Amino acid sequence: MIPDPGVKRAILLLTVLAAAACHHHAPTGAEAPDEAVLFARAAFEKLSAGDPAAAASIDWEALRGRTLDVGSVYRALGDDKERADFRAAFLANFAGTLREQGVASADYTGWRAEKKSTDAEVVTAASPKGSVHLTVAVRATGMKLVAIGP
């Protein structure tokens, strides 16, 4: 249980983030065997399942959603326990919201790089119920998700 009201409010906002991450878009393009695309797809599959291993794929301090700077909420948390609770709640809420919408990671096809820069790549995929856009940044520690949404 997360006692802090600010954390509870952030978790509610994250539920909205998960719902907003998928918006309607017709499927296009073919699958691309690009490293960032493969990373984003694997991370999304873990996120969609609520797999705790997904936490390692995310740069929590930099994470942005469609309408929320998740990283600023995360950075404002007081200690490691609050941060661990936040990560667990985020993963559970993200997966739960997608399930409620009838969305599964297997529904997404056409995984491709949409935009590339020297330090980040926007990866997108589409399903009959909408599309998802994931920004993958290249860090010294490897690839990390830094944004979910358009």
Sum this structure up briefly.
This protein is of the alpha+beta class and 150 residues long.
How does this model look, in words?
The N and C termini lie far apart (31 Å). The chain has a four-stranded antiparallel beta sheet. It is globular and about 40 Å long. It has helices at residues 5-21, 35-49, 70-76, 80-100, and strands spanning 109-116, 120-127, 130-139, 142-148. With 150 residues, the chain is α+β, with helices and mostly antiparallel strands. 35% of the residues are buried. It has one domain: Nuclear Transport Factor 2, Chain: A (Roll). The protein is built from four helices and four strands; from the N terminus they run ααααββββ. The model is unreliable at 16-32 (pLDDT under 50).
Q: What is the radius of gyration?
A: 15 Å
Order of helices and strands: HHHHEEEE
Q: What oligomeric state is this?
A: single chain
Major β-sheet strand ordering: 1-2-3-4
**What fraction of the residues are assigned to beta strands by DSSP?**
15-25%
The average pLDDT score comes to 83
Total of DSSP H or I helical runs spanning 4+ residues: 4
Q: Give the biggest sheet.
A: 4 strands, antiparallel
User: What is the share of helical residues?
Assistant: 40-55%
Provide the low-confidence segments as ranges: 16-32
Under CATH, the topology is which?
Nuclear Transport Factor 2, Chain: A
Structural class designation: alpha+beta
So what's the overall shape?
globular
How many domains make up the coordinates? 1
Number of E-type strands: 4
